[in-house]
Design a protein that fits this description.
There is one protein chain. The strands form 2 sheets. The protein has a 5-stranded antiparallel sheet with strand order 4-3-2-1-5, covered by helices on one side. It has a two-stranded antiparallel sheet with strand order 6-7. The protein has helices at 3-12, 63-67, 79-84, 94-101, 113-123, 126-135, and strands at residues 18-20, 30-38, 41-50, 56-58, 70-72, 89-92, 137-140. It is α+β, with helices and mostly antiparallel strands.
């Protein structure tokens, strides 16, 4: 995603966050919207860059920023939020990572809940599925 698409998406959905897949001076850069305090008065929402140490500054569209490719940062939700979304979901968990390392990719992508649970049941025991449900990081597409 290029910077213009990211800015457009942040204007529509200020709660989203994006990270670059490129590095600037060896530091990862994220973009998000914050309310900035200037002289005890709040400005409107401002798109800011945040480096890997947490320092923020207003977005400056320099050559590097314009050339970067950006990716949305998905925020994890609870299993119940994922299940109730009626959308495709995926889960990240050490047991899922172990399946991926064995070349089993069927459980590692966004799927509808019923399909995901069916595929997990093919490779995992009941107690492993329970651990995945309780301790996994769930994401909605």
């Amino acid at each position: 995603m290029n910077i213009w698409n990211v800015v457009e998406e942040l204007v529509r959905n200020p709660d989203k966050e994006f990270k670059t897949t490129d590095y600037y001076g060896g530091k990862l850069i994220a973009l998000n919207v914050e309310r900035v305090n200037y002289n005890s008065r709040y400005a409107d929402n401002v798109i800011v860059t945040r480096n890997d140490t947490g320092e923020t500054e207003p977005l400056i569209l320099n050559g590097f920023i314009k050339e970067c490719k950006w990716k949305e940062v998905k925020k994890s939700v609870t299993f119940m939020e994922a299940a109730e979304s009626n959308k495709r979901i995926k889960v990240e968990h050490p047991l899922i990572a172990k399946l991926r390392s064995k070349g089993i990719e069927e459980c590692c992508e966004y799927l509808f809940l019923g399909v995901l649970l069916y595929r997990l049941s093919e490779y995992c025991s009941s107690s492993e599925i329970r651990n995945i449900i309780l301790d996994g990081d769930w994401f909605i597409e």
